[in-house]
Amino acid sequence: MPTSPSPSPSSSKHHAARAPGYRQLLRTPGVWAFVLPGFAARQPFAMLTMSMVLLVQHTTGSYGTAGAVAAATGVAMAVCAPRGGRLADRFGQRAVLVPGIALHAASVGTLVALALAHAPAWALFAAAVPTGATVPQVGPMVRARWAVALTGPSAAPSPLMQTAAAFESVTDEFTFVIGPVLATALCAGVHPAAGLIAEATLTLAGGSLFAAQRKTAPRPYLTAAGGDAGHSSALSVPGVRALVIAFLGIGAVFGGMQVSITAFTEEAGHPGLSGVVYGTFAAGNMLAGVAYGAIAWRRSPRRRLLTAYAALTLACAPLWAIQALPLLGGLGLLLGLCIAPALITGYTLVDALVPPATRTEAFTWLTGAVALGQAAAVTVAGLLTDHAGSHAGFTVPLTGTVAAFVMLMGLRGHLVPAPREMRAAGAIGHRQAVTVD
């Protein structure tokens, strides 16, 4: 809960309609207590996939193997993240985060040792699974704290939630500007394993700092019988399932770009620039997020999501034909500009679609979908790159976004939030079951 009382819902609505923006958002009482630690705690995640690809490719000589091992991590995270989010909703974020960061650091250490010992591929896969399963879900936890700080556990959604979603997207992408560059610099300039070692160390430090901020955490939702709050998963909401499909396609862009950019820069004779080029892609996402969150949109979130997704799909189309690094950097910037609106609108919608007792779980379904899409894309792009070069790998983002967009159009009817009265009634029902302060 926030450290001091939040403005009343009517006051929040009045100010958001008059002057929505980051200044008002960051003046919300208590938010700095989790914003800064949350930024520190999520930085390692931006380094994980790139560091893993670089280490495994160095020790095995295969982008296909490197991509597949990284994919195993992504799949494990996608499968386990929603369950971790549900446990965080039920028992509290600290109870899930503290043991998770310790297990993650140990798993990363095991993977590094096996890779440097040139262990067989099956051993690398075996170590990759717990590495992904224990990735701290700091982003969803921070978003759940924003929801509490802005609206309270049972209030209707605040107009500032879109600004908060934009702020979180900017924060995520700022880490992805820094993360790949840092991972590449460590792996190329210090040691191939330095990126993963730094990731594990930062996970322990940042995760512990974030977990210590207990006053801003959402209230655990336990029933009197000790069962799960609401007895249903956030995935039972049709709109959440539609958003999961959309985020799978976004994950395909992230994964396909990571592997293909790495291969492209190596083919061009500049392997050290892979982090810089990928950072340009992330920078576009960050810049678009800043602008998107500062605008008072009149169009519905559903329409904005579909428009942004169509633009993203079109921007992926020419990737396979790029021949020069500057052109790839420019197109990567454009892709980033298209991704941010889709991500921000998706996170804004999911908060309006689910009751408060499943917020963290709902956010982890979306981040897990990105991880799963990224895992599949890393695997396919790695195999295509091994056999036909980076240009073949760049077809993966286009394929993923086209498939997701077609399905999203078919499911667009589910992307309309229920009336506030119905959500409020559902939230009250959940709160009546709470027995833990």
What keyword list fits this structure?
437 residues, disordered C terminus, disordered N terminus, mainly alpha, 17 helices
Characterization of this structure:
With 437 residues, this protein is an all-alpha fold. Helices cover 76% and strands 0% of the residues. The chain has helices spanning 9-18, 22-26, 32-60, 63-91, 93-116, 121-133, 138-151, 160-189, 194-211, 238-267, 274-293, 301-316, 325-353, 359-388, 390-393, 395-410, 420-432. Helix 13 (325-353) runs antiparallel to helix 14 (359-388). The protein is globular. The N and C termini lie close together (10 Å). Residues 1-19, 224-230 and 420-437 have low confidence and may be disordered.
Summarize the structure.
This protein has 437 residues and is mainly alpha-helical. The chain has 17 helices and no strands. Helix content is 76%, strand content 0%.
What's the helix and strand layout?
Elements: H1 9-18, H2 22-26, H3 32-60, H4 63-91, H5 93-116, H6 121-133, H7 138-151, H8 160-189, H9 194-211, H10 238-267, H11 274-293, H12 301-316, H13 325-353, H14 359-388, H15 390-393, H16 395-410, H17 420-432
Structural class assignment: mainly alpha
> What is the overall pLDDT average?
80
Task: State the low-pLDDT regions, or none.
Answer: 1-19, 224-230, 420-437
Helices and strands, in N-to-C order? HHHHHHHHHHHHHHHHH
User: Beta-strand level of the residues, as a percent range?
Assistant: under 5%
Distance between the termini: 10 Å
What is the number of strand segments?
0
Helix share bin: over 70%
Identify the overall geometry: globular
Number of helices: 17
Quaternary state of this entry equals single chain
**Cα-atom radius of gyration:** 21 Å
The main β sheet shows up as: none
